[in-house]
Amino acid sequence: MLREESDSAELTGSTVFKDERKQAYLNPEGADRPLISPVPATTLDRVRRYRLERLRGKMHEWDCGALLLYDPVNIRYAFDSSNMSIWTMHNASRYALILADGPAILFEFEGAEHVNDGLPGIDEIRPAKSWIFFTSGNLTEPRLKTWADEVADLVSRNGGNKRVAVDRLEPAGAFELRERGFKLLDGQELAERARSIKSTEEIELMRWTIRVCEAGMARMYEVSEPGRTEREIWAELHFENARSGGEWLETKLLTAGPRTNPWYQECSDYVIKRGEMISFDTDMIGPYGYCADLSRSWTAGHVAMSAKQKELYAAARDQIEHNLAVLKPGMTFEEFNALSWRIPEKYQPYRYTLALHGTGMADEWPGILLHPDFDPDFSGIIEENMVLNVESLIAEAGSESIKLETQALITARGAERLDTFPWEEI
Q: What is the C-alpha separation between 166 and 164, in angstroms, rounded?
């Protein structure tokens, strides 16, 4: 009872130290106000043209007659068209067909065609032919054939060859297209290779998404007090993202104290105690559909870290700073692996498998594993204008986990961090 009364009193925050460096990320117009994007419409128009040109360029390289997209992230990349993204991730009810020598067509959910008004990359909008069991039931087979006939007719009439790249398709759909003589290629690879190189304007959009994410992190920091639940703190990020034009969070990775180890436990109604480590990974799809994937760790009540917490935190910072410093354009994945930070043996059983991963409208290729897990046959080159996330997760037997992550642009000079939200002082 005494513990509960103490925690309840602490919720007021009147005696909690606040970090002024982090408060600077709250909206200067007031914490009760959403952030309003300053990005001009002309920037967004240039981004739209660039992205569609990237896809068409890859189609030309691959000698594709058409690119068929069902993944809502790829549709957003191609057209900047967003409609029920989470629902259509598991209900294949809208899709796009980009013809190599013809139009770019969006097949929209019936009755929602108007959500695409003003999008310049779309040459034609047609009603989607859905053949998922949810809406088709016993009519799935005839609707599937009608869908495949329309796709085949469009490719044929626009002079496309029989090589069609498809990002995601149920087996029955793939079978019907093959029955019509099409050779199916991996459209997800095509799309992710196109997405991996960012334009200057894309980086401007990503910086704004990160700005919104960091405002959400500042809100999380302000309420990271004893007596709160993990879910309460996590909700602050959702709130800031939603009201400032963002979209969704890919995961629920915020835990505290003993629940930080092992990692990958989702946030819960666990009541956090003073001095426990709070660790999280934002995985936030924010404004303009871009991802802000940042991780931080700090103590509940913002009290000084224990000796063990400081040790783990220092190791995580070492990993982040070392790997940032070695990144440069033109290096192979294997060269990066050889130069990357070596995780001490006592931390290895609790490691995060990724050292780096690409980021754009979601986590993207390449996912480069930490050195104990790296496969030397995994090939590729780190290129200028990639955006890569540098990861660290440090823990040992019986300890809490420290999770840190930063997002960086690869420039001619090396890695330039896009996020600036302060690390903890230890």
A: 6
Whether this model's pTM surpasses 0.90: yes
Angle at the Cα of 161 from the Cα atoms of 158 and 164, rounded to 5 degrees: 100
Q: Which amino acid makes up residue 340? A: S
Q: Tell me the chain's radius of gyration from C-alpha atoms.
A: 24
pLDDT of 15 above 50: no
Residues in Cβ contact with 251 at an 8 Å cutoff, skipping those fewer than 6 apart: 266, 281, 283
Strand partners, 357: 367, 389
Mean local confidence (pLDDT), 95-106: 96
Indicate the pairing of strand 104-108 with strand 66-69.
unpaired
Classify residue 35 as exposed, middle or buried by CB count within 10 Å of its CB (0-12, 13-18, 19+).
buried
Residue 104 token pair: 């770019």
Q: Which helix (H) or strand (E) holds 324?
A: helix 307-326
Strands in 284-285's sheet, in edge-to-edge order, are: 248-249, 284-285, 291-292
Helix (H) or strand (E) holding 194: helix 187-195
* pLDDT at res. 3: 35
Q: Are 167 and 69 in contact (CB under 8 A)?
A: yes
Q: Work out the end-to-end distance of the chain between its first and last CA atoms, rounded to an integer number of angstroms.
A: 33
Three-state DSSP state, 168: coil
Phi and psi, residue 95, nearest 5°: -160, 170
Name, in order, each residue with C-beta under 8 angstroms of 61's C-beta and a sequence gap of 6 or more.
Answer: none
- Cis ω before 366 (30° cut-off from 0): yes
- The tens digit of pLDDT for each residue in 308-350 reads 999 999 999 999 999 999 999 999 999 999 999 999 999 999 9
Residues 6+ apart with CB under 8 A from 165: 59, 62, 64, 66, 67, 68, 184, 185, 186, 187, 190
Where do the DSSP E strands lie in 109-221?
Answer: 124-127, 163-166, 183-186
User: Are 186 and 128 in contact, with CB atoms under 8 Å apart?
Assistant: no
Of the candidates 120, 119, 64, the one whose C-alpha atom is nearest the C-alpha of residue 97 is 64
Query: So what's the pLDDT on residue 365?
Result: 98
Note whether 227 and 274 are within 8 A (CB): no
Q: For the purposes of burial, counting CB atoms within 10 Å of the CB of 379, is it exposed (0-12), middle (13-18) or buried (19 or more)?
A: exposed
Q: How far apart are CA 177 and CA 171, in angstroms?
A: 10
Which tokens belong to 94?
A: 């809208």
Omega before residue 120 within 30° of 0, cis: no
